[in-house]
Amino acid sequence: SIIKEMAASSAVTADYVLKPPPYSLDALEPFMSRQTLEFHWGKHHRAYVDNLKKQVLGSDLEGKTLDHIILNTYNNGDLLPAFNNAAQAWNHEFFWESMKPGGGGKPSGELLALLERDFTSYEKFYDEFNAAAATQFGAGWAWLAYADNKLKVMKTPNAVNPLVLGSFPLLTIDVWEHAYYLDFQNRRPDYIKTFMNNLVSWEAVSSRLHAAKAASSSSA
Amino acid sequence: MMMTTTSSFLWSCSLLPSQGPNRQTQWKRHEKVLSFSLSCSPKSTVKFYMNGALVSRQLSRKVAVSGVVRAGFELKPPPYPLDALEPHMSRETLDYHWGKHHKTYVENLNKQILGTDLDGLSLEEVVLLSYNRGNMLPVFNNAAQAWNHEFFWESIQPGGGGKPSGDLLRLIERDFGSFDDFVERFKAAASSNFGSGWTWLAYKANRLDVANAVNPLPKEEDKKLVIVKTPNAVNPLVWDYSPLLTIDTWEHAYYLDFENRRVEYINTFMEKLVSWETVSTRLESAMARAVQREQEGTDTEDEENPDDEEPEVYLDDASEEVD
């Protein structure tokens, strides 16, 4: 399926490995503190990877790629045991790569054109993405995703991600409390704005869009 | 609207929210609830007669003596100072968890209900109405979280932990095998509740597994203690269970003290914080309520509904008509 192909070609290819973010843990200061990275990457993300390894050991999922595990344990929402750890491992790697030091600002080129086409304006997209992230009650993620040649904003609970919902993820923000608690306590809207204004790596999003379009057209 | 009051109110220091024995009366939105401010502890429940039925309401709001109900639920402080649970739950955690999270739920709830039909109802009524069979109305999350947090602060105490006794211990041993078995299962539920949510010990005294407008009366074997885990803001009130104990496993509950070590937080909660006295009191009330319901059920089973309406538990937000 297209999604499986896309999953295979996505940037997340390190299986069961706790990949460090593509910047040092203090590089996102003051917008996301080193302490947050130490906990969020160093403990939460690490635990998902470690627990996934333990979980698949000796099972028929052993040796399978992360993407395979995710797609095969989603089970139409009736999650099989390995899903949460596998998806969270994937989501977090994708998240670190969605940000960069000196990030934020506006996208450009094809990405901007598509955002303007599918949301009317960049500002409308910004508002919609903010709203999704702010209204995902409890734990979850907000996404910019690509499907059927259209960009769209999605929000998902807990570990769910667009891969299992038939869409290519392009950008994500983690809205589990552990993502923003140390820096923002309960002020999630402030965290979201900071993410958008100062952290998003539009380069990463653009290259993912490029890959998504290539994967789509190659299977057309 | 007909309201007759007894000449003196029945005071009780119950830690339970109101779960009126006559659910039919409870859900009629035309009747305004009158609460009266008191000088006694904020945990009091006032009982009074409304349309011939004994109804109880937890006092959670101040109102003017004239009986006009002003909107606004209060942010009740925990029944101990914010540093009293140290070192097991830090003052800093209470400052944020109660002082920001819980406070925000209450404030946002008040903004949401002001001037609406829900204005004037008790917190529990708002929770039950807005659950709407799982298709939650916008106010549910704030209302339920306000209720859950108040219940949570009262579930713990300085110098807590240890073992329960009396009826509570007897029922735990009956329904879980042993106290240790219960603890193990409770901890397992709390640690495996992925994402945000709560884990509960509850008293279940209904015949069916789902709440229903009219339940057949439960038999003795249907009445039991159960452990339930719920996601996000959901609580067992919505299934007509009587909550007895809860642990908050949203990350904000344990992040500052335990980071991602939820298991350690749960262990500490069980060993050092649980207020078994409170749980016992709640159990006694729950059992009494179950008995009362049965008596009323027996009395009125064959009577016609005086208003010629079907009992209404869930409110259709599109209209107030009954089926």
TrEMBL record, chain A:
Residues 16-100 form the Manganese/iron superoxide dismutase N-terminal domain. Its EC number is 1.15.1.1. Its cofactor is Fe cation. Keywords: Metal-binding, Oxidoreductase. InterPro entries: Mn/Fe_SOD, Mn/Fe_SOD_BS, Mn/Fe_SOD_C, Mn/Fe_SOD_N, Mn/Fe_SOD_N_sf, SOD_C_sf. It catalyses: 2 superoxide + 2 H(+) = H2O2 + O2. Belongs to the iron/manganese superoxide dismutase family. This is Superoxide dismutase. It comes from Brassica napus (Rape).
TrEMBL record, chain B:
The keyword Oxidoreductase applies. Residues 287-323 are annotated as: Disordered. Residues 164-214, 219-282 form the Manganese/iron superoxide dismutase C-terminal domain. It holds the Pfam family Sod_Fe_C. Residues 73-156 form the Manganese/iron superoxide dismutase N-terminal domain. This is superoxide dismutase. Its cofactor is Fe cation. Belongs to the iron/manganese superoxide dismutase family.
